[in-house]
Amino acid sequence: MPKTEYKRTRKDARELSRTARKGDKLYVILDIANERIPYEASRLYSEYTVTHDHPLLGGAMISGSLSVEGLVLRNGPVYTQPPKGIRNIADPGPQVCGPLPDGYEGVLDEAEIRGLEKQVADGSDPRKRRSLRGWRI
Q1: Angstrom distances, CA of residue 122 to CA of 54, 71, 108
Q2: Neighbours of 29 (CB within 10 A)
Q3: Cβ distance 3 to 80 under 8 Å?
Q4: Which of 52, 56, 77 is nearest to 66 (CA)?
Q5: From CA 137, how far away is CA 135, in angstroms rounded?
């Protein structure tokens, strides 16, 4: 494949569909919303593999019903090389909290200990807890 980036146009979609071969990998950059996961990168990439040609129309296909042309028009731009500096969405995410070092002792003050003891005393009596069988009407 001579080109490395195919923009979201019909011309580029047709060109990639003609030149893509079985086993080729295609990459799409995804924008990630960081409202609920602030530690995650705002851009990740997804990888697609060309698996076969359409039996009737002859265009390259990615999965059962997704064509390469459709991928470019829906998710473009599409790249033929993995984007540098961007993590694959299938790779493990960043570790935001590591294991505690050896010899670490967390010190609890008296107010925290009293609060924990109260939670244990109030919530651990099986006669006071709600039944696990669900709601009855």
Answers
A1: 64, 56, 20
A2: 15
A3: yes
A4: 52
A5: 7
The domain locations on the chain are 5-88
Strands in 78-79's sheet, in edge-to-edge order, are 5-6, 78-79, 25-31, 43-49, 87-88
CA dist 113 and 129 (Å) reads 22
Give the rounded percent of residues in the chain with a pLDDT score beyond 90. 26
| pLDDT tens-digit readout, 87-132 | 999 988 877 776 777 877 777 788 888 888 887 776 666 666 666 6
Length of the chain: 137
Q: Is the peptide bond before 82 cis (omega within 30 degrees of 0)?
A: no
Residue showing tokens 């698996």: 51
pLDDT in tens, 3-22: 789 999 999 999 988 898 89
Q: What are phi and psi of 14, to 5 degrees?
A: -65, -40
Q: Which residues pair with 46 in a beta bridge?
A: 28
pTM for the structure as a whole: 0.66
